[in-house]
Design a protein that fits this description.
The protein starts with 9 loop residues before the first helix and ends in a 9-residue tail after the last helix. The protein is 60% helix and 5% strand. The protein has 164 residues and is mainly α. It has helices at residues 10-16, 22-55, 61-66, 69-98, 108-112, 140-155, and strands spanning 124-127, 136-139.
């Protein structure tokens, strides 16, 4: 990691997320979980490579003892990043709860499959927020109906301009 490009502090992150809508908080958590998953997989692969070096009898004893310092350093750096990202998820959770919302845990099945996004495989969309702060899943039909209702509400607006 470059000295010129340091991550923002936890305090700065907590301030930055204060005004985000619930859906953005959950989306950010899913993004971070995905990153953690990739870093964890990367560490497993790097460790397997290091293990292959240390057990390779065709290499000198010195080389086997050293392993691969670059890979070891990468694993160490990844662990630091993973811990920082877990702290960020905790900050997101605290922000949701501070607002009176209920934090959802990402679907265990998706975590096991390497997907941490809010969608499921059975045609439903996980909705992690609502006015009451509870979570539930929408079927495709319910999602379509809600989208149609929102579009109808938008059509009753003051102007017909594009809203970004």
């Amino acid at each position: 990691m470059s000295a010129a490009s340091q991550p923002i502090s936890d305090a700065q992150f907590a301030i930055a997320i204060q005004d985000l809508p619930f859906e953005n908080l959950y989306s950010k958590a899913a993004e971070i979980e995905n990153s953690i998953s990739h870093l964890t997989r990367s560490n497993e692969q790097l460790q397997k490579y290091i293990d292959s070096i240390t057990s390779d009898q065709s290499l000198s004893e010195e080389t086997r003892q050293e392993g691969d310092k670059d890979c070891s350093d990468a694993i160490h750096e990844n662990v630091i990043v993973i811990n920082r990202q877990r702290d960020r998820i905790q900050l997101l959770k605290q922000e949701v709860e501070r607002r009176g919302g209920r934090w959802h845990e990402l679907d265990k099945e998706h975590k096991q499959n390497g997907n941490s996004g809010p969608t499921s495989t059975n045609g439903e969309l996980a909705v992690a927020y609502s006015d009451a702060g509870s979570s539930r899943r929408l079927t495709d039909e319910e999602l379509r109906q809600q989208m149609l209702e929102r579009l109808a509400e938008d059509d009753h607006g003051e102007d017909n301009g594009m809203h970004l």
